Amino acid sequence: MPRPRRTVMSALVRKGFAASEGDHSYYIYHTADGRKTLAKTKVSHSGKDIADPILGMMARQCKLTAPQFRNLVDCPLSREAYEDILREQGLA
């Protein structure tokens, strides 16, 4: 199910992603202790909603499955749980 672009962007920031602006908004994940990780994604400035195929691409960029990414955006997946997933993959 598509998600509003602003909702996705604000959820990423709440979960520890830092935004950098350009022709797209890039979000790079920083751990709770401030270390930059390889998990990152970008959000286009166009459109009101982000469609499911794009959410799937964003999930892969963030090193998550599509359901995990939806949980990250919708809040059931906490920042700590996300860091645990990254640690399991050797990325945090």
Can you tell me about this structure?
It is a single chain. The protein is an alpha+beta fold and about 90 residues long. It has one domain: 2-Layer Sandwich (Metal Transport, Frataxin, Chain A). Helix content is about 40%, strand content about 25%. The strands form two sheets. The chain has a three-stranded antiparallel beta sheet. Strands 1-5 form a two-stranded antiparallel sheet. A hairpin with a 3-residue loop joins strand 2 and strand 3. The longest helix has 10 residues. It is globular, with a radius of gyration of 12 Å.
Note the topology:
Layout lengths: L2 E2 H10 L2 E4 L3 E7 L5 E9 L4 E2 L1 H10 L4 H9 L4 H10 L4
Helix pairs in contact: 2-3
List keywords for this structure.
92 residues, alpha+beta, Metal Transport, Frataxin, Chain A, two-stranded antiparallel ribbon, 4 helices, 26% strand
